[in-house]
């Protein structure tokens, strides 16, 4: 793939297609549109689903090793032009080039990792109640998958959905986010070059009310998987209920970051800041609220602010930049509103709290690293997802207090704990009610783990063996080989 004007055609049934309308893609660094992308309509969505249905039996019948070979070719092609894909991510999404390179590498790893399951998708053989019979529980492809991804990781999340579907023997129709479609369209070219058969992977661009709605209301979808917001997740569940379509939803987060008095203070400061500011705070597992024991609170805040001042906000294409722009003007304005609400409720801006000034930021969607003090339990800034480079730091007195405050949330995705005390660790393991708990480390999550949330953070999950299970369903076979004609008459 040569850098320049990106390819913008959608992939449907092995052919690259234009859409029914066009939409501009805007560079968050300067607010300027730089390419127009076609939008699919409902008819094209149903066409892609029909293609996926036709392609699934043959793809599912292939030996898993054959499917894995295609997946390894995909990983190789990603790595072969990784820098170009990283720069494409920066242009449409705004994250720093350093982070974009990591995202591209992670996308390749998804395909390598799940290709290893070619020899590991296991069934079960159970004893029967009668002689001359076995009971098999097979794991078979779910069928046709509808996938919807957000804008914060537009390249890697394609891989996160497509890779397990491919090794499971599923076919998939994936809708990219309308703000960041170029990464998914670039992946479509990779799938084509790797020899993915027509209809096995279909990549659409379009809006939620049109393409998303068509995907989620179609009767011929066997699984819906989505990463995104809580309102969108609820809408998908409502639509899926019409046909009892299974869903897997990874939604928002409001991760608490707990620092105990025995923690290594410098390590905790750097980890808390990194977790808050990565991707300009636009990560579902980001540190959204930091709780620091009162004995070390003031020292922590002082060091956190000092570290935050060292971070460079600026052109995301430059290697020296630490924080790029928000993805869109609408997202920037949401962060500004969240900070204004907190201040009006009594919070104090200790650092930042505004857009940066100067000609380097003209037109871009930048926001300075922002630290809030004077935040008390019950404030919305501790309840509602901010999804930006803004962190409230709150003191606490006891482990009981902070566990109760951490759990007092509609969300339940990720949580963090910094301590060296084993009793504290085990209490947190048992009492912090989140799907992921990171102890003395931060994300990203591991491929072999299980990315799962509680409460409004979703149902189902991604990654590892348990994530792969989402893309498989079970079939029970009662196999009688006795030749006894009375066997169907059970002895009770």
Give a verbal description of the structure.
- By secondary structure, the protein is of the alpha/beta class.
- The chain folds into 2 domains: 10-251 and 457-476, Aldehyde Dehydrogenase, Chain A, domain 1 (3-Layer(aba) Sandwich); 255-439, Aldehyde Dehydrogenase, Chain A, domain 2, CATH 3.40.309.10.
- Helices cover 37% and strands 22% of the residues.
- The strands form 6 sheets. The chain has a 7-stranded mixed beta sheet with strand order 14-15-16-13-12-18-19, sandwiched between helices. A 6-stranded mixed beta sheet has the order 9-8-7-10-11-21, sandwiched between helices. A 3-stranded antiparallel beta sheet has the order 5-6-22, with no helix packed on it.
- Strand 7 (144-148), helix 5 and strand 8 (171-175) form a beta-alpha-beta unit.
- Helix 1 (42-61) packs across helix 7 and helix 9 crosses helix 10.
- The longest helix has 20 residues, at 42-61.
- It is globular, with a radius of gyration of 24 Å.
- The relative contact order is 0.14.
- The mean pLDDT is 96.
